[in-house]
Amino acid sequence: MLKGKVAIVTGSTSGIGLGIAEVLASQHCDVMMNGFGDEKMIAALQARIQRQYKVKVGYHGADMMQPDEVQAMVKATRRELGSVDVLINNAGIQHVAPLEEFPRAKWDAVIATNLSASFHSIQAAIPHMRKKKWGRIINIASAHGLVASKEKSAYVAAKHGLVGLTKVAALELAGSGITCNAICPGWVLTPLVQKQIEEKARDKKIKVKEAEHELLAEKQPSEQFVTPDQIGKLIVFLCTPAADQITGAALSIDGGWTAQ
After folding, report:
1. pLDDT at 129
2. If I label 145, which of 40, 69, 94, 252 is the partner at 20 to 30 A Cα–Cα?
């Protein structure tokens, strides 16, 4: 379905991003991966995806907090893989603390990674998409881009901002063949969420499985995790002609979280 297309997936060396990269590769899309991790582990991931799906897989280690590195990643993708057709802004970090205790440096880091990086990558990718009169920009926001939770001020602010950025981009790109949408997942069992579960278990002195159930039951009526594969398949749909007129949307995939 996506043969001949090239996608950038930020934060794709693990978790949601890796799942998205694999689903896109399964549709014969070439992929530029990005993220932190051990060099050998990343090289092995590249080789496996390339071999399994018979696509080109690049890697760029841009630090998403650095605007110049984000722009360099987009340029490198065009140079090495030939195009920039699909941009998936997925990279994200989290810090949890009450407002009065929230460290300023953590605030700046969360906003830079979860919001500003997407602005810089979108700005760099648009000219390449305009030349082809086709493109898909998909920002991985969160249920926290639509509703709030306590002690997540920076994350909630960034994800709400990302939904707003999505809408502005959609309006400015309307009629160009380029769409911009946000996907708003609920709980996905990623290393980031696993860390929160383990912290909850430790703080409440309960088993990890109990903490996991509490986490889901509190917010997600389905009491089931969303999977990276499900998110990836929604992205594939957004790349089809059926989704040509879906733009500026914040699409929930959250087991009923934001329906409450």
Report:
1. 98
2. 69
- Looking at residues 136-147, what average pLDDT do you find? 98
**Parallel, antiparallel or unpaired: strands 86-89 and 6-9:** parallel
pLDDT more than 70, % of the chain: 100
Work out the widest C-alpha separation in the chain, in whole angstroms.
57
Give me the pLDDT at residue 193, please. Answer: 87
pLDDT (mean) for 239-258:
98
- Look up the domain containing 198 and give its range: 189-225
Same domain for 128 and 203?
Answer: no
Task: Evaluate whether 47 touches 39 at the Cβ level (below 8 Å).
Answer: no
Query: What strands, in cross-sheet order, belong to the sheet with 6-9?
Result: 57-60, 30-34, 6-9, 86-89, 135-140, 178-185, 250-253
Asked if residue 125 has pLDDT above 80, the reply is: yes
Is residue 155 flagged as an active site residue? Answer: yes
Do 238 and 195 share a structural domain? no
252 & 142 share domain: yes
CA atoms of 237 and 8, how far apart (whole Å): 17
Task: From the candidates 53, 59, 107, 155, give the one annotated as an active-site residue.
Answer: 155
CA-nearest of 38, 40, 78 to 58 is: 78
150 and 194 co-located in one domain: no
Phi-psi region of 55 (alpha: psi -120 to 50; beta: other; left: phi over 0): beta
| For residue 161, pLDDT beyond 80 | yes
Domain annotation covers residue 1: no
